[in-house]
């Protein structure tokens, strides 16, 4: 996607042909800094510390982490150990396990001398696949926005509410929930995005607002709890969110707070769509509410906030009462009954086992 007119991807191989480059997302929106990752330990740290985040992007960067590990030691023992180490960094997004499983399957039966080149080729293929998947996903989601636009007075914006960051920063390119929005904007369709701040890490206010702004998409940041109010006032035409894992029954895990948006959307008759690439569909989990693991992150993410002061300094301040403990579940699960449908690279479908396996029969 574009930053001030220049095209970028969220992960790429450096000019030396082996190190991996990513944007440090913990520095956004205040600074655009590029990190150079030279081994799998650096990749694991980047994922844990959320320097790189977003379910599809985590998978792609982890795949390159395997290639970096094999540069040091291409043995089977190191391949297996690296896959195990990287797989423990984040539990909720299934894309991580999917990508590492694909890397292991592609490399395990090769002689060690061939593994490094094959690992880079496989990781590059996965990155290219993610970018194309998200482009196609956006093309299938675009008609939802076009249909709403046709029902409005000419020139009136389609108002989309989203949650967290499911744009190109969360994928290799295009994004999931934001891909239809970018394609609508680029096609000249008037679109406006309500951007939830997404506490506690503020990925909406910090990341989604930043990338929409750089691409020129009209948007407004709102507090997380404003969504229901906006829907009651008729100011939201459609909700589109991303997902970190979709269970076989259509239950959807996404950033904490998504479930409440789905409840508000149902109460107000607002369509609630979920953008899902193939790597996020976990047919091995039958019931998402019961079976999807929910990551619990540090309490400090809730009790502290980082921002820029009037004189340009970045400061972290405590916002919770001293001595009060905090819980920090990072995701919740929206039951399939609240989901209007899923947008995928293969088309749109209902949030049900039959519909999902109809699109992805190979996962049955």
Automatic annotation (TrEMBL):
InterPro entries: IF-2B-related (IPR000649), IF-M1Pi (IPR005251), IF_2B-like_C (IPR042529), Initiation_fac_2B_a/b/d (IPR011559), M1Pi_N (IPR027363), NagB/RpiA_transferase-like (IPR037171). Substrate binds at residues 53-55, 90, 203, 254-255. The record marks 164 as: Transition state stabilizer. The active site is at residue 244. Pathway: Amino-acid biosynthesis; L-methionine biosynthesis via salvage pathway; L-methionine from S-methyl-5-thio-alpha-D-ribose 1-phosphate: step 1/6. It comes from the Bacteria. Keywords: Amino-acid biosynthesis, Isomerase, Methionine biosynthesis. One of its GO terms (molecular function) is isomerase activity. Its EC number is 5.3.1.23. It is an enzyme of class 5 (isomerase). It catalyses: 5-(methylsulfanyl)-alpha-D-ribose 1-phosphate = 5-(methylsulfanyl)-D-ribulose 1-phosphate. Catalyzes the interconversion of methylthioribose-1-phosphate (MTR-1-P) into methylthioribulose-1-phosphate (MTRu-1-P). Belongs to the EIF-2B alpha/beta/delta subunits family. MtnA subfamily. This is Methylthioribose-1-phosphate isomerase. It comes from Craurococcus roseus.
């Amino acid at each position: 996607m574009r930053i001030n007119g220049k095209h970028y991807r969220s992960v790429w191989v450096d000019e030396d042909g082996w190190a991996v480059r990513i944007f440090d997302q913990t520095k956004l929106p205040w600074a655009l800094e590029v990190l150079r990752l030279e081994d799998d330990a650096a990749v694991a740290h980047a994922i844990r510390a959320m320097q790189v985040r977003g379910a599809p992007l985590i998978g792609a960067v982890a795949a390159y982490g395997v290639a970096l590990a094999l540069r040091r030691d291409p043995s089977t023992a190191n391949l297996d150990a690296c896959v195990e180490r990287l797989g423990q960094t984040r539990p909720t997004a299934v894309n991580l396990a999917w990508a590492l499983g694909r890397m292991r399957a592609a490399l395990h039966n090769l002689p060690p001398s061939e593994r490094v080149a094959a690992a880079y080729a496989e990781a590059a293929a996965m990155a290219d696949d993610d970018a194309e998947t998200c482009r196609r996903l956006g093309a299938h989601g675009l008609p939802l926005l076009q249909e709403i636009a046709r029902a409005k007075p000419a020139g009136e914006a389609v108002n989309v509410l989203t949650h967290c960051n499911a744009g190109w920063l969360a994928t290799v390119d295009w994004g999931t929930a934001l891909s239809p929005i970018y394609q609508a904007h680029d096609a000249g369709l008037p679109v406006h995005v309500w951007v939830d701040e997404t506490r506690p890490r503020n990925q909406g206010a910090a990341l989604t607002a930043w990338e929409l702004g750089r691409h020129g998409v009209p948007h407004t940041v709102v507090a997380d709890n404003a969504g229901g109010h906006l829907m009651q006032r008729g100011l939201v035409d459609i909700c589109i969110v991303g997902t970190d894992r979709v269970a076989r029954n259509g239950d959807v895990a996404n950033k904490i707070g998504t479930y409440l948006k789905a409840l508000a959307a149902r109460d107000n008759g607002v369509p609630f769509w979920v953008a899902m690439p193939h790597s996020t569909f976990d047919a091995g989990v039958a019931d998402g509410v019961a079976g999807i693991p929910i990551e619990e992150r540090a309490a400090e993410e809730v009790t502290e906030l980082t921002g820029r002061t009037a004189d340009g300094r970045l400061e972290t301040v405590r916002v919770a009462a001293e001595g009060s403990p905090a819980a920090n579940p990072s995701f919740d699960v929206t039951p399939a009954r609240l989901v209007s449908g899923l947008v995928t690279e293969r088309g749109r479908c209902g949030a049900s086992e039959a519909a999902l396996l109809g699109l992805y029969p190979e996962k049955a």
